[in-house]
Amino acid sequence: MSLIPISIQLYTLRDKASEDFPSVLKLLSDIGYVGVEFAGLHGHKPTEIANLLTELNLVASSAHVPLPTPENISELVDTYKILGTNLLVSGFGPDDFATVEGTKVSAAKFQAAAEISAAAGFKFGIHNHWWEFKKFEDGSLAYDIMLSSAPDAFSELDVYWAEVGGSSPADVVKANQSKLDLLHIKDGPAVRDKKMTAVGHGKLDIPAIVNAADPAVTKWLIVELDECDTDMVQAVKDSYIYLVGKGLAAGRK
Fold it and tell me: What's the CA dihedral at 188, 235, 239, 89 to 10 degrees?
């Protein structure tokens, strides 16, 4: 089975990136990451960052962006065509999934964003948190309602938040293989208000999760750590060492 390449959500190193974005990209290249997922450019021009990616042998896997709309799609396309990705991702807060009806309203917005993106040659995906996995009174999940009600959007499943929400991430991956263009890989105690760990150092069964994905569909495994109990740079290195060293992801080193 072919290995899925490893990327990292740049939000993970947001503090360092806000001070010196190019040095963060060089650090990630030196570690061996294949791709990076953008969450803003920290004041740099797309052409500048695109040139730097080429120099560092990095690829733009995807980007977290404001919800694509008719008003902003041209700017998003102009920016991310230069950076070399056509995968755009957004998400909503807990209030948007508080009820079944509210979830359907949110899903309609995601579907509209997917249609707008597709017309521009891009794909749109939804990033989840724990609240999409809190069960409604009828036992249904906002995550499932959302995917069925936004058929043209893919899922960037955050496996950690699925676990925190009470679901088995490996089961969610297996049940939704055809929708999972991207996977967010993070680890930790799986308790809502506790900080995360390097991937492979927490509670999640990372091998089971990764092995449940379809490499023909899932284009990237993307490390993301919102907060960490240890040094974040070390956690980023340790996550790479674990995923690549265990044969779960393809890196450059």
Answer: 80
